[in-house]
Design brief:
By secondary structure, the chain is mainly β. The protein has a domain of 67 residues. It is built from 1 helix and 3 strands; from the N terminus they run βββα. A 3-stranded antiparallel β-sheet has the order 1-2-3, with no helix packed on it.
């Protein structure tokens, strides 16, 4: 006789005992696999501890992803790159940083 799947409904936010849906986990943490797969990617698992209003507690996997994969695998992304602000410093400014009083902006 096949075993009854305990709380493996696919939704980690649903209580496996009473079926109540919870909005947020009480606590989250990450698990990193110690051994990469054959492509060299490391699996990162986000776990969560949940508590339903009826007092039941459970732990479930919130998300699993490989370190080499992109977040939106099926969504085409633009290749445009935004230019950030360039800050240029002189080495003498950094070396004499603590010697001079700060300049007041006005």
């Amino acid at each position: 006789m096949p075993r009854k799947s305990k709380g493996k409904s696919g939704d980690p936010f649903t209580c496996p005992v009473c079926g109540v849906r919870v909005t947020d986990p009480e606590r989250t943490w990450t698990l990193v696999s110690p051994i990469p797969d054959r492509e060299g990617r490391v699996t990162i698992t986000v776990m969560g501890a949940f508590r339903c209003p009826n007092g039941h507690t459970w732990k479930a996997v919130i998300k699993k992803f490989k370190s080499g994969e992109e977040e939106g695998a099926g969504v085409p992304q633009t290749t445009e790159k935004e230019e950030g602000e360039t800050i240029t410093l002189d080495l003498s400014d950094i070396q004499n940083f603590n010697d001079e009083p700060p300049e007041e902006e006005g």
